[in-house]
From TrEMBL, chain A:
Entry keyword annotation includes ATP-binding: yes
Origin superkingdom: Bacteria
PROSITE patterns hit by this protein: ABC_TRANSPORTER_1 (PS00211), ABC_TRANSPORTER_2 (PS50893)
InterPro entries, per the entry: AAA+_ATPase (IPR003593), ABC_carbohydrate_import_ATPase (IPR050107), ABC_transporter-like_ATP-bd (IPR003439), ABC_transporter-like_CS (IPR017871), P-loop_NTPase (IPR027417)
Name of the protein described by the UniProt record: Sugar ABC transporter ATP-binding protein
Gene Ontology molecular-function annotations: ATP binding; ATP hydrolysis activity
Keyword entries, A-Z: ATP-binding, Nucleotide-binding
Residues in ABC transporter domain copies: 6-247
Family: Belongs to the ABC transporter superfamily.
Alphabetized Pfam families for the sequence: ABC_tran (PF00005)
TrEMBL record, chain B:
Protein's recorded name: Xylose transport system permease protein XylH
Organism: Devosia nanyangense
Main location: membrane
Compartments where located: Cell membrane
Membrane spanning stretches: 16-38, 45-66, 95-118, 125-147, 167-189, 219-242, 248-268, 275-295, 301-320
Organism lineage: Bacteria, Pseudomonadati, Pseudomonadota, Alphaproteobacteria, Hyphomicrobiales
Topology term for the membrane: Multi-pass membrane protein
Primary role: Part of the binding-protein-dependent transport system for D-xylose. Probably responsible for the translocation of the substrate across the membrane.
Amino acid sequence: MAKPIVKLTNINKHFGPIDVLHDISLEVNAGEVLCLLGDNGAGKSTVIKTLAGVFKPSSGTIEMDGEIVEFTGPRDAANRGIATVHQFGGTFPLMSIGRSFFVGVEPTRKFGPFNIFDRKTANEIAVRAVREFGITRIDDGDRLVGGLSGGERQALAIARAVHLGARVLILDEPTAALGVKEAAHVLRIVLQARQRGLAVIFITHNVVHALTVGDHFAVLIRGAKAADFKKGEKSREEITDLMAGGEAMAELEAEIKSYSAGQTPQAN
Amino acid sequence: MNRSFSLGGLLRRPEAGALLGLVAVLIFFSIFGGTSFLKIAGMSSWLNVAATLGVIAIPVGLLMIAGELDISVGAMVPAGAMTVSIISGHLGLPIWLGIATTLGLGVLVGLINGLMVVRTVVPSLIVTLGSLFAVQGMVLGLSVFITKSTSVALKTEGLAKILLGDFVFGQLQVMVIWWLLATAAYVYFIHFSRFGNWVFAMGGDKVSARNAGIPTERLTVTLFVLSSTSAAFVGMCQAILYNSAQVAGGQSFIFNSIISVVVGGVLLTGGFGSVIGIFFGTITFAIVTQGIYYTDFDRNWSSLIIGVLLLLAVLMNNTFRRAALSYAPKHKGAK
Ligand SMILES: Nc1ncnc2c1ncn2[C@@H]1O[C@H](COP(=O)(O)OP(=O)(O)OP(=O)(O)O)[C@@H](O)[C@H]1O
Ligand SMILES: [Mg+2]
């Protein structure tokens, strides 16, 4: 089998005296979606920030295509093909679709002696790139990003990453703020990215979303990897339990039920 | 996509409010003051004010688009005037040395402002408040120390006078030409070159911009250098024009430039605005302050008009920005 695109080995991270990650080892292959699951504060965001060059690991190694790499910063990681899309798309709400799509890599054309921003090309490419992901409602590159829906913004950010040559796509809770329909769009786009051969790391608190797109799952509990399994190896209930931090969800549910049973029934 | 003229498209641009504001004050003063302020002599009165302010307002506005403020321009105007006057007037050294030193001082203060803003997490309002006072103090102290006075005479002749401190076409100052040239250059850099895109991205979301590979720190420092050098340039030109410089004055540039920029449609929190909007905003401001002389109103009322104008402009710009945000093209409905 080919080498994984990214492989973390025994990553530890502490901020001063606070240990956040213990011996995390993960790998993700091209054309595969790795779901990173875990309760609030489990360390998911810290893992991906380490992977995106924001934090340096305190110890442990990161390999890309079998070679050890040390990122000097987010820019370095991005140049090596690691793209992070944040919850709200991390885009510029008051910029046009075409302009925000090409921030930092603006296409230019000659105008007499001047190099000017090629608005037409930028808009065309940006609109085509999002439409390829099935967002056909976007057809004017001059529209402002802030006027798009949450799902459309995610789509734009993912299309941008793919267009700029990302090989690893990191999505930190991309569906958290979205309604059912918008979330479904984003999940479909994640699967399309996978189909194009990207490695996707997908963080979510939603078991259904995770099961829909995930090929491979890793669960973090208090900074350590508590489970690592492939699609179909665990039931939905088992995964829910793990995500809640290992406490049996059934117990919790029973407890919740006993509270509501103790209350006088509401009039409606 | 067909880009023929449309009123809706115009209203969604950042300068829409500024243009309407300009039309409104033109109508207002035409009614109450007649059209003489639109004739050559009247025009030069407000064009001179607009030019002097506009050269500073545009870089101040660009900083605002990028998410920063620079109020130290209020000290840099008299600093520029005093520097050239002390060197080339009081000390009698060549004018070119005075000009070079003045611009060098502008670059230096801009570098200090910019580096302090990017190296510390102190907001630029506070950093430039500090440099405003520091530069004021230094200019006063050094002027009194060197010249034993707070005002210095400066006699300039030849090319420097013609280029920097003279009149063209009667009462029109040469500064108007500088202002138009600067505006054209800024329009190119901000709206047509790729650097402009970086400024907007930086003002929209600094972290994302940096992660997208934009040299945000270098760009921020550059913008601070531009604003403080422009302010020093304006002070220098005024000294050459009026043949003298005073330590006092200059503070009016702080508020006047911010008003012009905000009336011009720049979002105070950054990420949105246009050079043409700032250009219109500056003209609007200048017409209000000068147009009052052509009416029967007492000139004290001009501050009231400016205050009302500012509030109206902000409200209007907010409305237009919201319209721009929610705009989605109608497909089949429109012809
Ligand atoms: N810069 C930091 N300094 C100190 N502690 C930190 C820092 N960043 C994160 N932490 C701590 O590390 C732990 C893990 O945080 P992290 O943001 O990775 O959690 P998460 O799994 O992403 O949670 P959530 O689901 O709420 O987003 C938390 O306890 C947090 O307080
Ligand atoms: Mg998180």
